[in-house]
Amino acid sequence: MKRKKINCETARDFSVEKALEKLGHFPNRRTEKEAWFLSPFRSETQASLKVSRTKNRWYDHGEGVGGNVIDLVCRILKCSIQDTLVFLSDSIPINIMEQRHQLDTTSINIMTGAHIEIIKVHDIIHPALIQYLKLRGISLMIAKIYCKEVWYRYNDTQYFAIGLRNAKNGWELRNKIFKNSSSPKSYTYIQNNSKQLIILEGMFDLLTLATLNEKLLNTSDVLVLNSIAFIKAIERHIPKYESVHLYLDNDKAGERATEYLTKKYKHVIDQSSSYKNHNDLNDLICHEQRKQIRL
Q1: How is residue 202 annotated by DSSP?
Q2: Most CB within 10 Å of its CB: which of 91, 153, 168, 220?
Q3: Helices and strands, number each (H, E), in the chain
C-alpha cells in the first residue's frame, strides 16, 4: 500500500485531530469548529487541550502553549522534526490516516468484546504505545515478551492497543485512553513446567512483575486473571502446584479474593504486602518512577 511522503510545508496541513488520534488520543467533545482533548502532557479529568478545526491549530489551556501539528507531535513524542515527518507520513497507511472517529471518549470506553474485530497482530512498534509503556514504567523489551500490538475494528473505526492473549485466544487491549477486551474473555495461562504458580490480576501486573523479578516469572507458571471474576474458573489449577503466590489488587475485590483463596488453600501465599500502600504492582513502580523524576 502506498504511503504519503510529506515535508515541513505540507506537514503543517496535516490534521491536528488526526495526528492526535494516531497517537491514541480521542476527543472528549467535538463541535463544528473545535475539538477538546484530555491533555497528553499530564493526567487530568477535564479536557484542556483545544483543537481549532478551522485553523488546524492546538492550544493547551493548562500550560498556555500551542502551535501547529509538527509542534504537537514533537512535544508528545519528544522527538526531532525529521522523526515527526516520518511519523506523520509513514507510520500508518493512508486509508487509516483518512478515517474520522465518530465516537467520543465516553462511548469508546464502554466497548464490548462482541463488537470488537481483530484486524492484525504484530510486535509493538507504534510510538504512542511505546510512550504509554514508558509512562507505566515498562520497557519495550519486557512488553514484547508477553504482549503484541493489536489493531482492531469497532463500529467501522480502527484502533490500536497493547494486547495480551488469553487462554481462549481473545485479547486484553490497553492504551492510554481505553481498557477493552475482545471475545472470548478469559484468563491468560503461561506454563513453564513449574511447581510454583503466580496469580496476577491484570496485564500490567504481569509486565511489572517481569520488570521487578524476571527470573521469578521465568521459573514459575503464571495465571493472569484479566478479571477478578475468573477466580472460580482458575481454582481448578491451584491443587496442581506446591506453592501459589497471589499478587492481587489492594482493593475490596482483590482483598476478598485473596482472603478466600488463602483460607481455602494452605499453600496459597498473599504477596500484596510487597506493594503495601499501593493499589497494585504497577502503581508501586509508577510511584517510584515519579519520585525519581522529582529528585
Answers
A1: S
A2: 220
A3: 13, 15
Which of 147, 181, 215 terminates a domain? The answer is: 181
CB of 201 within 8 A of CB of 248?
yes
- Final residue before a domain boundary, out of 181, 205, 234: 181
Asked if residue 136 lies in contact with residue 100, where contact means CB atoms within 8 angstroms, the answer is no
> Which residues lie across from 179 on neighbouring strands?
174
Residue 153 lies in a domain: yes
Alpha carbon distance 274, 281 (integer Å):
8
Give tens-digit pLDDT for 144-196. Answer: 999 999 999 877 778 899 999 999 999 999 988 777 888 888 999 999 999 99
Render pLDDT for 79-136 as a digit per residue (tens, 0 to 9): 778 777 776 764 333 233 232 232 233 233 334 444 788 999 999 999 889 989 998 9
Domain contains 2: no
**Do 130 and 57 share a structural domain?**
no
What is the rounded CA–CA span in Å between residue 248 and residue 204?
Answer: 12
Name beta bridge partners: 160.
151
Domain that holds residue 153: 111-181
Cβ contacts of 282 within 8 Å, gap of 6 or more: 136, 137, 204, 205, 207, 208
